[in-house]
């Protein structure tokens, strides 16, 4: 990564009272780090590494699908903010947890640890402690982020009352992309709706499954469901569920001639490993990351990042300790053992209302956490619409749609033509949405 003219830091913060060590990487703002906002970022899973956000989505250099080398990212979020990527919970990516401190994983323990991580990283950068702070993330971070903001809010309240804290974070708001929010809305019924309206399912199968969604939730498949479940599986085969209209990378032959060499023959780790589709789409799991594939989503381009972060010289430059595991995109053990609550994070939005500004953006070709369900829970908040649903434009083209609610404190935006990782696949409109929000600027 040449031409880095800004501070780039990598290290660890411990969780007090435990052996947990959370890895972070901080990309200093390229604009005015003394006053620019600080964005803390989490990828989801649960159990997936925030280095994915840094290396494939909105870091200063990124790896495009099908590419072999990183290139400068014109829409890196550190153009206007200092961005801190935290690998959480302990055991994910380069974060580690020796001993017996990591036998239980759940949303409460993750939120508690993330609070300590944010305070710990800001403690290392006192010059950032007064800067506006935004907590952000995607996918299962739709749970992580609101819960962490709630924890920080409680911390601020206690600090203000007791005047006993070294510093008080200048928390301004939160931003969630394609985020899991609640199993009542983010569930297989939404996938069925999206698959039909994208022209993937035929009408007969759609009509049956929308009335009998249990058919693609239960394993083994009930006998009465078999024809429809089979049609669903066959129709969805080879579709990139994280980007319905995107490329489905499965074999080296699909990657183009430059990758048809022995050096890249193991590029994907999918192909014949894919098991029956339907068993993974359950409301309980919230998102269909496939643990039997080490959570690398089918069709998604992944191996070059694994190679890069597995390089010993890269580990050394990132100050990665020997106790850290070999880096992987996601930790399937954590995902499999993670205790998910019955309810999601909708109640936290209600509790934080009028305290902090909120952005929810959604790539509209995502089938893992479909916009269809996201729009439902937002509508059911019944918050007053301040500025109605309207197109916004980037370079004369529709970038997406945006709506403002609750006096402008809540922004809901779709990123047109983007999948689950909106900053990766549609970086410019996502960048515009994020920094319009941070700068408190409404689209015209």
Describe the structure.
The chain is α/β, with parallel strands linked by helices and 444 residues long. It contains 13 helices and 14 strands. It has helices spanning 51-57, 107-124, 141-162, 188-197, 203-211, 226-236, 303-310, 312-317, 332-337, 346-352, 371-381, 422-425, 427-438, and strands at 8-14, 21-27, 38-42, 61-62, 71-72, 82-86, 105-106, 133-138, 171-177, 338-339, 357-363, 385-394, 397-405, 410-415. The protein has a ten-stranded mixed beta sheet with strand order 1-2-6-3-8-9-11-14-13-12, sandwiched between helices. Residues 252-297 have low confidence and may be disordered.
What key phrases describe this protein's structure?
13 helices; 10-stranded mixed sheet; globular; 444 residues; alpha/beta; Rossmann fold; 30% helix
Tell me the layout of helices and strands.
Blueprint (H helix, E strand, L loop, with lengths): L7 E7 L6 E7 L10 E5 L8 H7 L3 E2 L8 E2 L9 E5 L18 E2 H18 L8 E6 L2 H22 L8 E7 L10 H10 L5 H9 L14 H11 L66 H8 L1 H6 L14 H6 E2 L6 H7 L4 E7 L7 H11 L3 E10 L2 E9 L4 E6 L6 H4 L1 H12 L6
Parallel strand pairs: 3-6, 3-8, 7-10, 8-9, 9-11, 11-14
Antiparallel strand pairs: 1-2, 2-6, 4-5, 12-13, 13-14
Helix pairs in contact: 2-3, 3-10, 4-5
């Amino acid at each position: 990564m040449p031409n880095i003219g800004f501070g780039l830091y990598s290290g660890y913060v411990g969780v007090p009272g435990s052996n947990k060590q959370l890895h972070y990487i901080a990309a200093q703002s390229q604009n005015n780090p003394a006053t620019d906002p600080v964005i803390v970022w989490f990828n989801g899973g649960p159990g997936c590494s925030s280095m994915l956000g840094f290396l494939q989505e909105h870091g200063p250099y990124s790896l495009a699908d099908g590419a072999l080398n990183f290139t400068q990212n014109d829409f890196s979020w550190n153009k206007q903010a200092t961005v801190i990527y935290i690998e959480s919970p302990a055991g994910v990516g380069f974060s580690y947890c020796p001993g017996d401190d990591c036998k239980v994983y759940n949303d409460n323990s993750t939120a508690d640890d993330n609070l300590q991580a944010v305070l710990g990283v800001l403690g290392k950068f006192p010059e950032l402690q007064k800067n506006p702070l935004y907590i952000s993330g995607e996918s299962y971070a739709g749970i992580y982020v609101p819960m962490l903001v709630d924890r920080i809010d409680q911390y601020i309240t206690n600090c203000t009352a007791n005047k006993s804290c070294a510093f008080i974070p200048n928390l301004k708001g939160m931003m969630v992309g394609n985020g899991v929010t609640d199993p009542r809305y983010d569930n297989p019924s939404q996938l069925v709706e999206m698959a039909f309206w994208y022209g993937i399912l035929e009408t007969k199968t759609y009509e049956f499954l929308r009335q009998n969604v249990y058919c693609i939730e239960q394993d083994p498949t009930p006998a009465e469901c078999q024809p429809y479940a089979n049609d669903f599986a066959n129709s969805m085969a080879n579709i990139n569920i994280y980007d319905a209209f995107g490329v489905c990378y499965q074999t080296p032959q699909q990657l183009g001639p430059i990758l048809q060499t022995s050096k890249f023959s193991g590029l994907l780790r999918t192909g014949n490993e894919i098991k029956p589709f339907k068993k993974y789409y359950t409301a309980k799991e919230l998102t269909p990351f496939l643990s039997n594939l080490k959570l690398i989503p089918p069709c998604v381009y992944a191996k070059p990042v694994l190679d890069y972060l597995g390089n010993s010289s890269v580990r050394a430059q990132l100050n990665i300790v020997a106790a850290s595991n070999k880096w992987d995109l996601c930790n399937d053990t954590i995902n499999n053992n993670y205790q998910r609550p019955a309810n999601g994070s909708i109640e936290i939005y209600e509790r934080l209302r009028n305290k902090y500004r909120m952005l929810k953006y959604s790539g509209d070709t995502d089938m893992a956490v479909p916009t269809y369900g996201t729009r439902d829970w937002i509508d059911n908040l019944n918050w007053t619409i301040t500025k109605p649903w309207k197109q916004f434009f980037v370079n004369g083209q529709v970038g997406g749609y945006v709506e403002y609610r609750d006096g402008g404190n809540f922004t809901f935006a779709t990123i047109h033509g983007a999948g689950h990782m909106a900053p990766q696949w549609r970086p410019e409109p996502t960048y515009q949405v994020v920094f319009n929000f941070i700068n408190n600027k409404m689209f015209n």
